[in-house]
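Help wanted!
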Amino acid sequence: MTDDGPRPVKTTKTSLALVRAVRDSDGATLSELAERLDLAKSTVHNHLHTLVDEGFLVRDGDTYHIGLQFLPFSEHARNRNPLYSTARQRVYSLAEKTGNEADFIVEENGRAYTLEYAIGESTARGLSESSPFRAGNRFHMHNCASGKAMLALLSDGRVREILDRWGLPATTAHTITDEATLFDELETIRRQGYATNDEELIDGYRSIGAAVTGPDDTVIGAFSVGGPAYRLAVDESSTREIAQLLLDEIDSLESELAL
Amino acid sequence: MTDDGPRPVKTTKTSLALVRAVRDSDGATLSELAERLDLAKSTVHNHLHTLVDEGFLVRDGDTYHIGLQFLPFSEHARNRNPLYSTARQRVYSLAEKTGNEADFIVEENGRAYTLEYAIGESTARGLSESSPFRAGNRFHMHNCASGKAMLALLSDGRVREILDRWGLPATTAHTITDEATLFDELETIRRQGYATNDEELIDGYRSIGAAVTGPDDTVIGAFSVGGPAYRLAVDESSTREIAQLLLDEIDSLESELAL
DNA sequence: CCTGCTGTTCACGTATTCCGAACGCTATAC
DNA sequence: GTATAGCGTTCGGAATACGTGAACAGCAGG
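Answered by r_m:
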């Protein structure tokens, strides 16, 4: 699973595993972590102190939390590609125009990361607390609309590489878990120019996504618009309407990027 | 300097040093990193591969970049405290009202982190590329307005702790580098309720900041409004005007938080 | 073709990490 | 008030796994 080419640095891996465990448990104590990762308390102790010293963890009483030191790095990654920043702007107008949730997603290492997220109707801009789609979340490529839209534009070889690495885990009964079915779907997506996601990621959530490509036909990322199934009708026409909105926005963006 | 209580985990430290070096050089090759950190190429090789495998670095040809894997963690940290999210909203209205740059900053481990940043006049919301203040940046507490505003509300003991840990490095000729002067300044800030920064961080940049406190008088964070010195007049009245705007916004926020 | 630069691999020795038991400490229960 | 259970902390010792440096492969340019 975590196939590592040469000789992985185990110590670093355990440090990172600790950080991950802290995040997933939303604050954990030393003993909890030691038990969960099956490590000696003293080992965990040393790691935690090192990570706190570096600012990646914060200690509050006896529980540890994720530190803000991650921020300078994530913002660096987010802003590294100026194309990303340009694209991110568009999320807001998409959300407003459709009155639904909109996001901009990017592929890295075979996973999809949400770079920007917005809700329509809501006046509050950055407000995106409870949503499973808020910025910074990571998805598999095969069970979200944006992910599939991007996969459809990658080479078959690359797609297989990604599937081999990350598999096709199911999150709902509708998730595509079969390679052949997925490749059929990708063909459909290529034909119609956009991808749909009908409760494949989350029950009751439906979305439509389309990819952004650069001048040299490389995939930059993808936008998607989604919402509860009761609001996004299944019928062809309303899906098309949203898809058209997406494609128009992307056209406009792509010509802006071409300058 | 990097005083670590018990036995620091050296391997983790070097991994993190590598990540930092990659960020600071905005993309670096293996050999560059090996030379810069004075490590064997093979060592760097193993670390880099491990970090890529974990998603914290990305390899593009032969240069390494910061990976998006930092995002899920930074967003977690950013959203952990719901108070932060509530406060962050206010940055936008501050920026619009004053027509200047506004940010919300939080203290962690003796350092100040920008959680949200906005520019007035500009219609683009998240657009905050080139500014040294954009979200995710980290500052020392003593040379920015928000930092000083927060220091003024901490106990003397805690302030000394922070100074001991991080020092008073100068970034301009106006930076306060003397402890006694700083404590005098903090007294002034407590008296007037807000802090000013007159080119102490960046030449030509002036700002005004005030801290947000919780119901139990704990310091939550601080807002600041700033801009080029030629736009933010030095005279008392205009400073007061902005300060009043800040304090009003904070009052309103604090009563919202008290619910 | 050769030189200089990448990144990669590998065997070796030693420094480092990891463990486990013992210690303080606080809070709860009795 | 004492005992106990839980926490984090410290420390010595042992084996692991980290770091090194030299040798290898691939590529660009002279």
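OP: Thanks! One thing I noticed: Residues 73-257 of chain B form a domain with the Beta-Lactamase fold (CATH 3.30.450.40).
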